[in-house]
């Protein structure tokens, strides 16, 4: 059986988090140097480290089976690869921006010059909005385009907004797109049963990591008289796990709770009489 061919970013903000997530899912992705290909024979996968902007093209053309890239890069590539799982990291918004006091809404882009590194994505968006404008394609650092007189506005990914402010620009209008890292798949995968099986396992493992990042395990001791109140606070996925304690009238309870809610749930459990309340992190899971 041919190994699953998996494209990963070789640099940029998505590279390290993608490798970390796959490692948590049980894949061997570590590079000892700057290798372009890393084999993981235990999982029957080959990882190809590529420029983030090229990943969607390789997957869309069927040269590789799956990959991790940004949603913005996928849509700008205009290839047939499809998003099959959002991965929860590398989040950013895609905005139009110009100098303060200049263009203040998207209608003001009519007939203007817009600099961007994502011409296909922006052109499609403008067409949907019925706006005609001239696109100026740049390969990066579009923030300087307005100052240098190349464009009247820019369209770019905004993470913190610091770079825009430094360049004397501000965003306007609603975001064009909400982007994040995504797992993508090529159309040719459906024609290969062994690849379909490998992708299903990959999908399940990554979902397990995503769930593990959102939840924690909560253990506590609880008086039987208070357990019904406690169960309302920790319903779990199916239901809490309950075990009798040696101390009569008490039970041990284990349940999954949302990570962000855990401190508040611990406070509430204490108030209803629970004690020995412990929180443990998950590495991965199957729900």
TrEMBL record:
Gene3D superfamilies: 3.30.70.120, Periplasmic binding protein-like II. The keyword Cytoplasm applies. Pathway: Amino-acid biosynthesis; L-histidine biosynthesis; L-histidine from 5-phospho-alpha-D-ribose 1-diphosphate: step 1/9. PROSITE patterns: ATP_P_PHORIBOSYLTR (PS01316). Its main location: cytoplasm. It is found in: Cytoplasm. Feedback inhibited by histidine. The keyword Transmembrane does not apply. GO terms for molecular function: glycosyltransferase activity. Residues 212-283 form the Histidine biosynthesis HisG C-terminal domain. SUPFAM superfamilies: GlnB-like (SSF54913), Periplasmic binding protein-like II (SSF53850). Its cofactor is Mg(2+). Residues 51-207 form the ATP phosphoribosyltransferase catalytic domain. It catalyses: 1-(5-phospho-beta-D-ribosyl)-ATP + diphosphate = 5-phospho-alpha-D-ribose 1-diphosphate + ATP. It holds the Pfam family HisG_C. Its EC number is 2.4.2.17. Keywords: Amino-acid biosynthesis, ATP-binding, Cytoplasm, Glycosyltransferase, Histidine biosynthesis, Magnesium, Metal-binding, Nucleotide-binding, Transferase. Catalyzes the condensation of ATP and 5-phosphoribose 1-diphosphate to form N'-(5'-phosphoribosyl)-ATP (PR-ATP). Has a crucial role in the pathway because the rate of histidine biosynthesis seems to be controlled primarily by regulation of HisG enzymatic activity. HAMAP family: HisG_Long. Belongs to the ATP phosphoribosyltransferase family. Long subfamily. PANTHER family: ATP PHOSPHORIBOSYLTRANSFERASE, ATP PHOSPHORIBOSYLTRANSFERASE ATP-PRTASE. This is ATP phosphoribosyltransferase. It comes from Saccharothrix mutabilis subsp. mutabilis. The gene is hisG.
